[in-house]
Write a structure and sequence with these properties.
heterodimer, A: 362 residues, 6-stranded mixed beta sheet, 5-stranded parallel beta sheet, 40% helix, 19% strand, B: 99 residues, 5-stranded antiparallel beta sheet, 31% strand, elongated
Chain lengths: 362, 99
């Protein structure tokens, strides 16, 4: 596929490996923020290609992994109500809530459907006016414009049997939470390419300045990641803390203004609880008052429901770069993709699932 | 989850920018995507699609930058004794790679 395959070229990867080895003189720890990047790093063995002094730790950028247990419980509860069709992205259906998952809700008779886009869910609502169609709106800023578009279209076309259970999270507050933790190990970031394609770089420039940490807004193919690492390591070696754009083929410094307007129209910034991490101020998006009629939490009376998380899963430490998946005692034994204890083992972009799949466990 | 797939816009339908859709060719697989976030998209352009919405254009010239950067790096190294990275956006990308 054009704009993908050419960035998997082994000869260029080798040139990048040499270039990185040449520029690096001290040990450095970088975090790739996005789960898609984690997946590519493990799949292509990029971490094993790097000089021993460079450590990659895996960030919180897997929305499936950080969606709070109580939101999954709410989705399950909604799916069990009569006359409801609950639509979700595929990787959410096997994430454990406090008792079971959406797949179990489907097995128990709930109408749970996997869709590719919130606009598919909206179409389903239009075609089935007697059903209450609820979309489980999980995701970072990359996904928010699509969800915002679905909500605005529903309002304009008076599709009143459509609503959304909004679980949106924002990347920059999570990066700040990591950087301000006393246990922080991160010295530079590969910032998330598609989030920045939407949001631009301004929020990241603020963080780079405030915490004196360099970043490369990076894509998702092996050569993208290697170039992002080279840019970050060069900055660290030279004592610079800029936000460079590696993924320039898809990212403008100002982002996508039209997409940002769609988000601003529909969403408002709220504090959000992250699975394994806890509440982070200003880290979530919820529907604004103007669109409250589409808020599934209000429509189904679930606003006040909350639940404590179980403690055995250490995904919170993994998502902040403090532990590697293999350092968890349950990894590969009590916790596998078939019987996950936490979401980092469920989603293919979760660090634990990526280690389980691409590293030989013996 | 933030997976974005590049594809070529082959057809555009609709007047209202909020409801405008495009047919996008993903290496032979054609899907309809919303163009609500790229109101001025044109047929023939490449876009990045996520969750049914085109979220960004692909800049064909910048797409070569990953390869040009390495050549720029080699050039700088020849010219200076200390290794320094090039600006990640060189003015004249070197088209070292051919599809």
């Amino acid at each position: 596929m054009r704009f993908m395959n050419e960035y998997r070229d082994g000869a260029y990867a080798e040139r990048y490996r040499k270039a990185i080895a040449k520029v690096q003189t001290k040990p450095w720890t970088l975090m790739e923020v996005c789960g898609g990047q984690t997946h590519a790093i493990l799949k292509y063995g990029i971490d094993q290609l790097l000089p021993p002094g460079i450590t990659l730790v895996h960030g919180p950028g897997c929305p499936v992994c950080v969606t709070a247990v109580e939101l999954i419980d709410k989705a399950i509860e909604i799916a069990a109500r009569p006359g409801v069709t609950l639509c979700s992205f595929g990787d959410m259906v096997r994430v454990p809530g406090s008792r079971n998952d959406l797949q179990a809700a489907k097995a128990a008779g709930g109408d749970v459907r996997i869709v590719y886009s919130p606009l598919d869910a909206l179409r389903l609502a239009q075609e089935n006016p007697k059903k209450r169609v609820v979309f489980f709106g999980v995701g970072f800023e990359t996904t928010a414009p699509a969800n915002a578009t679905a909500i605005i279209q529903a309002k304009q076309r008076n599709i009143n049997n459509f609503s959304m259970l909004v679980a949106h999270v924002r990347v920059p507050p999570a990066m700040e939470a990591i950087l301000s933790s006393p246990n922080n190990v991160v010295q530079g970031f590969l910032a998330p390419g598609h989030v920045c394609a939407v949001m631009g770089c301004a929020e990241y420039e603020d963080i780079a300045r405030k915490y004196k940490v360099p970043m490369a807004v990076t894509g998702f193919e092996p050569l993208d990641i290697l170039q992002g690492i080279h840019i970050c390591i060069t900055q660290l070696e030279q004592g610079r803390t800029d936000v460079a754009i590696q993924y320039a083929r898809g990212v403008l410094r100002e982002g996508n203004i039209a997409a940002q307007r769609l988000m601003q129209e529909v969403f408002t910034v709220i504090p959000r609880k992250w699975r394994g991490i806890g509440e982070i101020p200003e880290s979530g998006l919820a529907l604004s008052e103007r669109y409250a009629e589409f808020d599934a939490e209000r429509l189904f009376g679930l606003v006040d429901y909350s639940v404590e998380e179980s403690t055995e899963c250490i995904s919170g430490l993994v998502l902040q770069g403090n532990k590697k998946p293999v350092e968890c005692p349950a990894f590969g034994t009590r916790c596998t993709p078939e019987t996950p204890l936490g979401a980092t083992m469920v989603s293919s972009e979760g660090a634990c699932a990526a280690y389980y799949r691409y590293r030989n466990i013996s | 989850m933030c997976l974005g797939v590049p594809g070529k816009l082959i057809e555009i339908a609709g007047e209202d920018p909020l409801f405008r859709v495009g047919r996008v060719d993903f290496a032979g697989v054609i899907r309809e995507v919303s163009l609500a976030a790229i109101p001025d998209a044109r047929v023939g352009e490449y876009v990045i699609v996520h969750a049914g919405l085109a979220i960004s254009r692909l800049d064909e010239e910048e797409a070569q930058e990953v390869f040009g950067y390495l050549d720029e790096l080699a050039r700088i190294e020849e010219a200076t004794p200390r290794p320094e990275a090039p600006n990640p956006k060189p003015q004249t990308p070197n088209h070292a790679f051919h599809e």
